[in-house]
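REQUEST ID: PR-0412
SUBMITTED BY: lab tech R.K.
PRIORITY: routine
TASK: structure prediction, single protein chain
INPUT:
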Amino acid sequence: MWKFIQDHWRDGIEILLLASCIYQVYKAFRATRGAQILVGLGTILVVLTLVSTFFRFEVIQWIITRAAAILAFALIVIFQPELRNGLARLGSNRLFSFSSKRRVAFLERFADAVINLSKKRVGALFAIQRDISLKEHLESGVVLDAQFSPELALAIFYPKAPLHDGGMIIADDRVAGAACVFPVTEKEMQDRSTGLRHRAAI
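STATUS: complete
OUTPUT:
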């Protein structure tokens, strides 16, 4: 047993590293529109490869080998937006996430924004994206890409501002979108004047 470990410990580390990299890439790309298509194509290729190898279908093996490079290039061209978004998510992943100093700075700005909004009696709804993608809700509003700040939060949520109705989505330390629509509670509300933003917060 010990000899087996001595002979193959490098293989184990290599497998763990590859599995970790594949998992991080999968997490980065799983929320993109082309992810399901890529998974489907990959599954078909794997199945065809296994079947052709097992039954020795030489023609299919030859086609797969010749078409692999062309298919890879075609996928890069077709799914360029998804690849760009996926790489952006990979770069913002926790393994490569912004430093603790940036996180603390963002939390300080966020706290200042909440205090400022409260003092001015301005209502607001924030959704901070973590592991679960909020892309579905982001597409219901106005997509932004701006540094979060108390001033920006006040400008967006100030009454009668164009984007004040709805919620703000924050990804990492940036404003990803505003005027986003979120699911509202189905609980019966005693106060009929309660707005959609309040019902969504509940």
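NOTES: Helices lie at 2-29, 35-55, 58-78, 80-91, 100-119, 135-138, 150-157, 196-201.
REVIEWED BY: pending
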